[in-house]
Amino acid sequence: MTDDRKIWNDFKSSKDYALSHIYHHHIDLLFRYGRKFSRDEDLIKDAIQELFFDLIRNRESLGDTDNIRFYLLKSLKNKIIKTLQKDQKSLHQVTEITEPKFSSVYSHEEDLIERENRERNEQLLLKGLNELSPRLREILFYRFTCELDYPEICDIMSIRYDSARKMVFRALRTLREVLSASDIMLFFLLKSC
């Protein structure tokens, strides 16, 4: 039994630790993910809160899952889109995809160097991402930030398997074309720092 399956089953069985574990391990990703659909932070926070209320309220009748992250992402996307449709707002206001980075600060100088490297790295990545369509940015987010498998991406985006693979390939090819060879080298050098 996978860890996610055990935690999910414990949550459904009302074990105290499981809800806290699910919440704390996924809240940051859920918030960043919500920002892909709306810049309205209150709307995102409300959708996440409603998602967890629904989980608690319906825990006994929930289906099984061995991938909690995927379950939460798909549920949150549905809630946000439903709210946006109800409010008649734009469906996709995709923003930059960022990922929190682990940082160990040993000194002020190292912290400053790391911050500068991260900013340059983010600028390079954003330069490439700005050339992609919202759908291509979305699929890269699922594949590389959320680490979803292609069948999960297909389910959440409502596309076919071969389309998902082609979209990822097209997005990566576009990034390579947009970023010069020196930009790519700099990106990977900064990434390894």
Automatic annotation (TrEMBL):
At the top level of its lineage, which domain of life is listed?
Bacteria
According to its UniProt entry, one GO biological process term is: DNA-templated transcription initiation
Return one GO MF term. DNA binding
Q: Which InterPro entries match?
A: RNA_pol_sigma-70-like (IPR039425), RNA_pol_sigma-70_dom (IPR014284), RNA_pol_sigma70_r2 (IPR007627), RNA_pol_sigma70_r4_t2 (IPR013249), RNA_pol_sigma_r2 (IPR013325), RNA_pol_sigma_r3/r4-like (IPR013324), WH-like_DNA-bd_sf (IPR036388)
Q: Which UniProt keywords apply?
A: Sigma factor, Transcription, Transcription regulation
Q: Where is the RNA polymerase sigma factor 70 region 4 type domain?
A: 124-175
The record's annotation in Pfam families points to: Sigma70_r2, Sigma70_r4_2
Reply yes or no: does the keyword Transcription regulation apply: yes
| TM regions (residue ranges) | none
Tell me the ranges covered by the RNA polymerase sigma-70 region domain, including all copies.
22-88
Family that this chain belongs to: Belongs to the sigma-70 factor family. ECF subfamily.
Question: What NCBIfam families is this protein classified in?
Answer: sigma70-ECF (TIGR02937)
Protein name, per record: DNA-directed RNA polymerase sigma-70 factor
The scientific name of the source species is Prolixibacter bellariivorans
Top-level taxonomy: Bacteria, Pseudomonadati, Bacteroidota, Bacteroidia, Marinilabiliales
